[in-house]
Amino acid sequence: MGTLNHFSFGWLTPTLSYVMACAGAALGLRCMLRALSATGASRRNWLLTAAAAIGSGIWTMHFIAMFGFSVSGTELRYNVPLTILSLLVAVLVVGAGVFAVGYGSHRGWALALGGLTTGLGVAAMHYLGMAAIRFHGAINYDPGTVGLSVLIAVAAATAALWAAITIRNVYAAGAASLVMGIAVSCMHYTGMAAVHVHMHPARTGLDGATPMQFIFPLAVCLGSFLFLTSAFVALSPTAQERAAYREAGELTVEDLRTSELDRAA
Q: pTM for this one?
């Protein structure tokens, strides 16, 4: 059995991974606030953006945290298709939860379904990402600890969504993003506590990509996406601002008409 180390770089990887999870959650929940005050295609587009932000945020959190994971006596590589699949699953399943909350007619049931789906999406992403690991050995899991990790993800995701839709302001979304970051981080390290590794004799080389080979595309693609989306959300007017603009425009037209009538008189 190989010796596991989840903190090869000390507290650097847990801290960075938590920050990334919070950033994705903050952006996603901010988009949810915009969606709940919108209708039609605008609501759908905001919810799609929220799903992409939260899903990519938790996937990036997992990947950064895995930089601190090592097994003595073997190198680690990652199966690229499975790793990409874990990202797609995170976005799609989280998206199902976000849409359940965004379009649910009964808030209680919508929240329960959204929290359950989002939490399961976090868990599915994690264990798919673990299945992508290639090394000279095999991974076994403690079922009880795995079940606990899923419960943590579902409970915390439900709490975060409740906070986001109950208190509709920036501060509530910020607090909810911190809860989501805690949810993903606790779920990750609880799931990692369930891991047991059994080493095999190293007869052949390992296929797949090294962790370092993911750094550049990860930083460029997801970092650019989160930055550009954050800028778009920050610059986009809220529903209240649009209503104020419309009201100001109507007042301006009315003022012009009044002025013309005064001159005619």
A: 0.81
